[in-house]
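Suppose you are handed only these lines of text.
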Amino acid sequence: MALLIRNADIVTADSRYRGDVYAEDETITRIGRNLEAPPGAEVIDATGKLLFPGFIDPHVHIYLPFMATFAKDTHETGSIAALIGGTTTYIEMCCPSRLDDALEGYQLWKSKAQGSSACDYTFHMSVTKFGDQTEGQLREIVADGIASFKIFLAYKNFFGVDDGEMYQTLQLAKKLGVIVTAHCENAELVGRLQQSLLAQGKTGPEWHEPSRPQAVEAEGTNRFATFLGITGAAGYVVHLSCKDALEAAMAAKSRGIRIWVESVLPHLLLDKTYAERAGVEGMKHVMSPPLRERDNQKVLWNALAMGSIDTIGTDHCPFDTSQKLLGNDAFTQIPNGIPGIEERVSLLYTYGVKRGTLDLHRFVDAASTRAARLFGLLPRKGTIAVGSDADLVVFDPEYRGKISAATQHTNCDYSGFEGMEVEGRPSLVTVRGKVQVRDGKFVGERGRGRLLKRDPAYF
Ligand code: URP
Ligand code: ZN
Ligand code: ZN
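From them, the structure of the protein bound to zinc ion can be written out as follows.
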């Protein structure tokens, strides 16, 4: 299978030039001008389009048993939505609960993706308890090609670890050279605040944010950073939502702690008034950390532009309207999460690049290259270079459209971004040289995705 993309405006995290890209057997083999393709090759004219490396979503939930229900996507629906949105690789949180066996959980998560995902994938392995068998099991999982762990400081008694378990996880990660991603909210404070609010009859979704104020996230971020400093491990804060937590992470960075930061689209574009809408409309916008006061957005965009926020993910986690209504009587029972895997690239391009906040190269870096570097995928993924996988996004900057649940591919009956305008979208998307999306539609091979083996070499 050969593929030639001609006359492209090729954009990577650090360069922009006009040229042709040729791929054979899944890999980019030539980049130049006026390249010729053999008979039978797929030839695409990209005149007037941008050509980006396939985008990487570093934080998604596809299979997720959580809050008395399951996230709605399968790898089939989630990966098609991802590809239509220009994401050619995602990193799923593998999340067995504290009651589950980690190794069995890992096998289960793998079995859900294998033969089902149309894009490439890997996992952050969640450590939700640290018992006698944990070290041996994690060593086995790392040997299988998983180069990142995940811990939750929130969700006590389900996914959450205590400080001792965090310490043990970070110590092991340091030994193995594995980076640890972390959901940073203080579980004890969240629990106390939730009980106090419910006792006052404050049961609606508008009370979700007051139960997890900025200070709760800043404390979690600071504590995680302190533990990183003491153990010498490398860490990555997921879905950082606000100014106070960002200050905690930046203060740690300036002390020399190896900490990186991810934010997600909802916190850049939506604010807490969305969760204050009446009834289920508010519930649709309940996630953790919660949507914040609007003034945090400017801080996050600026930090992203400077590179202090390293990556933009989605924390894609779709629960439909009927699932959200599980929390009708108490905001604490609303399944936390919002879909977004399909909209990430177009929204970031529109509200970052087109609005003049985000340089085009930082856009590619934040949505692809830096995740590839942090999670052991570069140079196979995250760039356009000879030897890299031919994961390519032909992006039409002239496209104009609106986000709508009626046209989305994720398995959810609403979009948290309903009605938002987008300027530009992926028109053609390839995974290892095969066209998976053409004219914005999935035309490819279901189940083509592969589990990516990674080396914990970077740290
Ligand atoms: O609300 C969220 N974020 N749901 C998904 C689970 C998590 O915390 O990432
Ligand atoms: Zn989380
Ligand atoms: Zn998540």
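What can we learn from it? Residues 61, 183, 287-288, 315, 317, 336-337 surround N-(aminocarbonyl)-beta-alanine (ligand 1) (CB under 6 Å). The first helix runs from residue 75 to 84.
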